[in-house]
Write a structure and sequence with these properties.
The chain is mostly beta strands. The protein is built from one helix and 16 strands.
């Protein structure tokens, strides 16, 4: 599984695969290395790689991963690409609600003239065999519905438009 990791201003791609003896990890396009993991107590992990053990304390702080390794504090944002796709599917901007990836419009939960609040689910798109809710980006009134249930949408396909209350 690939993960996008951001530490400060630096971004990395980590490829992590489960093996019989632990995990095989590759950072960016570097070499793979084996890591064993032992004892998960009190948010503490002991990682073993190349005969060296490393104690790591872990905490989840909002959407960030906080690690304490050998007295150093590292704060990282870690994004599972599957969750990123789902987040993009529900991301919309300004006055329009769009599908961020190709898919079939399963349902529209509003009508022209309906008032919506920021975060309300206004439609559902099926993409990659998953149902993805499309949410209103702001408070407003549905001004126009630009697609019909059953339509195949392209990426950035407009589903509906909003106007101010």
């Amino acid at each position: 599984m690939k993960y996008e990791i951001e530490i400060g201003e630096t971004s990395h791609i980590a490829n992590i695969e489960k093996t019989e003896k632990g995990y095989q990890i590759q950072i960016d396009d570097g070499d793979f290395f084996q890591v064993g993991c032992a004892e998960r107590l009190d948010n503490k992990l002991t990682l073993v790689s190349n005969g060296r053990s490393l104690d790591v304390r872990h905490a989840l702080c909002h959407d960030l991963q906080e690690l304490h390794i050998d007295g150093r504090r590292i704060v990282a944002s870690v994004m599972d690409p599957r969750k990123k796709v789902l987040a993009l599917a529900s991301a919309t901007g300004g006055d329009t609600v769009v599908s961020q990836m190709p898919g079939r419009l399963l349902s529209i939960a509003v009508n022209v003239g309906d008032s919506v609040s920021k975060g309300d689910v206004v439609a559902t798109v099926e993409a990659m065999k998953m149902e993805n809710p499309l949410k209103s980006p702001r408070d407003g009134v549905v001004a126009e519905i630009c697609a019909q249930e059953g339509d195949l949408l392209e990426a950035k396909g407009v589903v509906l438009k909003l106007e101010a209350d």
